[in-house]
Amino acid sequence: MDTIASxxxxxxxxxxxxxxxxxxxxxxxxxxxxxxxWGLSIVSLVILIRICLIPLFVKQIKATRAMQxxxxxxxKIQERYKNDKQRQSEEMMKLYKESGTNPLSxxxxxxxxxxxxxxxxxxxxxxxxxxxxxVINDSLLASARKAHIFGAPLAAKFTDGSSKVEALGATLxxxxxxxxxxxxxxxxxxxxxxxxxxxxxxxTTVKTPFMQQQKMLMYVFPVMFAIFGINFPVGVLVYWxxxxxxxxxxxxxxxxxxxxxxxxxxxxxxERLTKHVTHHEKTRSRGERAIVKAIVSKGRDRNEFERKFIxxxxxxxxxxxxxxTVAKGESAALETEDGTPTTATTPRRQQPKRQTKAQxxxxxxxxxxxxAENAPDDADEPKTSLSKSDEPEDAKPAxxxxxxxPKPAGGTRSKAQSGQRKGPQRxxxxxxx
Length: 433
What we know:
Elements (H helix, E strand, L loop, with lengths): L1 H5 L5 H19 L4 H18 L1 H16 L1 H10 L4 H15 L8 H22 L8 H9 L1 E2 L2 E2 L8 H6 L4 H29 L8 H21 L4 H24 L6 H17 L5 H13 L5 H12 L2 E3 L5 E3 L4 E3 L5 E3 L13 H17 L24 H5 L7 H9 L15
Helix pairs in contact: 2-3, 2-7, 3-12, 5-6, 7-12, 10-11, 10-12, 13-15
């Protein structure tokens, strides 16, 4: 570890100078030799570093959003090359290159903090060994060796022996209890931060290598912190616990106010936003307008939660505008699950009720009878037995009325089929197929 830390010795002097400046401020309040003065100096160093890394954190969020938008394409590649893992990896790397995204972007804040972490470790290791480093002179070195945090010296480690701990003015039990509690808190905060990201702010409907990577980091990082934590001085544990708590709070803020599309956090956020907008009939901040603007610009590509948000506004007579604001609208259009707009006041078209086979046959026969009765008679053609008679009913002979109609012979049927019979004909009944 000392070899690795020495590689970052170029930043040791600036880190030690920042700690000394904060110590001079807190020393006037708590005393120069107290653990509060030195411990708060380390905490202030963490806060200063994390404030400087906020632009990098914003870049990390944008890269993560870009990875989320690529998930449908990544799913297609997985399905297309599910039996060829090598080709699948090649297509994934090609997709990353074309879109300009990096699956390792979530590690950027940790990588950026590495120089400060190793420099601080080098400074505290010098305090433990009694050697001056950076701007820490002999008087500051003696003051730092006297500082205790809950009974544990600033430069003590979990693996230190009793003789070394006693030389720093503490007991082995105090050092191991304090360091063990801090290691557990450090690992637990890291696990909770990553789990919060996986369960609330990631679209878990699509299984991609990015998802697998995040799930792996959720378990790997806490184990790494627990293993390496026993070799960290108390001051380094304070540094890393503070940065984990900062990351957890920063991520909670982002998840609550700028969630990932398609995640559970977005569903909760849009539900809160719906209640506020329907009550005040307006968006209250620039961030909310940006969210509404992004939802409107998606059109039919909106997810389930975004369509629910648009429909909720529509039901109360509000319409989301392209600039992110909302206004009252006269015509309301709801969106179905596939994104197709439907007018709220117009009922949907009902599918006709299916008829049975007997009903269809009787309807066809009735239509055939109606067409035969309404067909015009030809005056020049001789009337057949199927046409109406011009004579009144009482003028016909009684025998003719009672005489049943003769059945057509086989020859007559063949002539009718060949087209030799004239006059209107009764259409055939529908075939029973």
